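Please review this one:
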Amino acid sequence: MRITDIQVRNLPAPEKGSKVYYDDTLKGFGVRVSNAGTKAFILATGKNRDRTTIGRYPTISLAEARDVAKKLMAERTLGRHQARNTTMGAALDQFTEEHVSKLAQSTKSEIERLFTKHLAKLRAVKLDDVSTQDFTKITAKLAPSEGEHLHRATKTFFRWCVARRMIPHSPLEGIRPPSKWTPRERVLSDEELRAIFKALGDDRFSSIVRLLIHLGQRRTETASIVPIWVKDDILTIPKDVTKNRREHSIPITESAKAIVPLLAPFNGWSKAKVALDKDAKIAPWTLHDLRRTFATGLQRLGVRLEVTEALLNHVSGTKGGIAGVYQRYNWMPEMRAALRLWENHLQSLLPKE
């Protein structure tokens, strides 16, 4: 068939992996559709059907992609086509479709954020031409934690490219992260929690923050919660949402359950956090600090470490290694008791009516 704009828009996504729909009128030209629904134009050439990613749809149109495919085929015929002509941007898109899309939602979102924010200027550069200096110039300007996270994600990307013979070697091979960063240790005091409670409003962001304080779950997981995940007094977060890809079930208190219907997809984290800081007037803090505060608060209340780790969905520590293989007790009664203690403590911090 001759691929048309309407067909490109309506091409179905496969249940797993990706599928290529080829154009019968231009040999080797087609559209690759991932199971997430992402579409990219490709050109398969040579005896080995080597694929060149032309670009993502709708960033480039079908007509533009077809013209590029014709030029690539002409260059190959004239002997000027290079085997490795993929741009950094096209390779990043393919890496996202084939690898990043299979990761937990929070990890996927973070990697996509890093690539979009910091690697935009390299997207038009040929993958073969990207140098170590191109990358280190970027990380040198970043905060230590941001630089290390970008380094690790990009190093994985380049290794993926090498494995697919897109480049002969990684420009980051043997290169250490830009600097060591110290994990945060910030724990909010009761007075600071009280100030946050007082500053929260009736908006969606405030509902997310309240639930972060009540349950101590990760930000992305908390913002994704929907009412159907709650059955009686049990909240179950699906494995495709959790960071460690493990289904996570915990008790949920009545106060926390009342917040769930108020949640909805949310954007604008930075702006909302700035507004909250302006009203709360406490020392600098992050949303993830609430998770550490939750764990520390339970420790103060005498909750066992195993119970806290079960609530946090940690698989390291007491649940790591061989112990985690044989230790299958779910700690549900103990978690329920721990959350009641924490709930009572939070109630004592709430502003008096």
